[in-house]
Specification:
mainly beta; 13-stranded antiparallel β-sheet; three-stranded antiparallel β-sheet; 12% helix; 216 residues; single chain
């Protein structure tokens, strides 16, 4: 066999091997999501901040000590998903008693739009809070006038973990939230994301003797 034909044969073999490898990688299935059930079906709940919530953008941290949101577990059978999470709409969380790490600066947090939270059962129960486009805005006054807008380009998914208990809890640990920052001197205008930390205790308001629980 000539050198040209040998080189051509080797090239075709290599291309075939790459094609097979690519097809195999593409065809590899993703792990299937497990089943999720949130109970009690149809019950209303209240999520109240435990401790403090912090939102850090650049070198500036806003800390709030009061935050509340309400919602309801979907009625049956919507409270069950055999292969994925269960989602519930929630009211836009309110934030008050807020301070800034910048001296002489007072922050105000406003929220709006259609918020939701979804639960996925597993060895670690995970949760995702969806912030609607522009659904959270922090405005500061005083020595620095800044505006921080969360989810500026579209709804943002904020990861969390869930723990069953009495009451159950929803925890955000260094969760990343996309933001834009506008303003003058002292404003972290180069920041494109913020870090959110908070723990919410979730109580059943339909029947306070029961607990909101996530199971398979």
């Amino acid at each position: 066999m000539s050198r040209t034909r040998t080189a051509l044969a080797l090239g075709m073999a290599a291309a075939a091997a790459l094609t097979v490898a690519s097809a195999t990688a593409t065809a590899a299935p993703l792990p299937a999501a497990g089943s999720t059930t949130v109970t009690p079906a149809g019950h209303s709940f209240k999520a109240s901040l435990s401790g403090k919530a912090t939102l850090k953008a650049g070198s500036v941290t806003v800390t709030c000590t009061v935050s509340v949101s309400t919602g309801a577990v979907p009625a049956a059978p919507g409270n069950q998903n055999p292969a994925g999470p269960v989602s519930s709409p929630i009211s836009p969380p309110t934030y008050s008693s807020c301070t800034s790490s910048m001296p002489g600066v007072t922050p105000t947090v406003t929220t709006s739009g259609a918020w939701s939270v979804s639960m996925q059962n597993g060895s670690l129960v995970t949760a995702t809070m969806t912030v609607p486009t522009g659904g959270l805005v922090v405005h500061t006054t005083g020595l620095a006038s800044c505006t921080v807008t969360a989810a500026p380009g579209g709804p943002a998914s904020v990861p969390a973990t869930w723990a069953n208990g009495a009451p159950s809890s929803l925890s955000f640990v260094n969760a990343s939230v996309p933001v834009t920052v506008t303003g003058g001197f002292g404003c972290p205008t180069s920041a494109t994301s913020s870090t959110f930390n908070a723990v919410y205790l979730v109580s059943d308001t339909t029947d306070p003797a029961q607990q909101i629980t996530v199971t398979p």
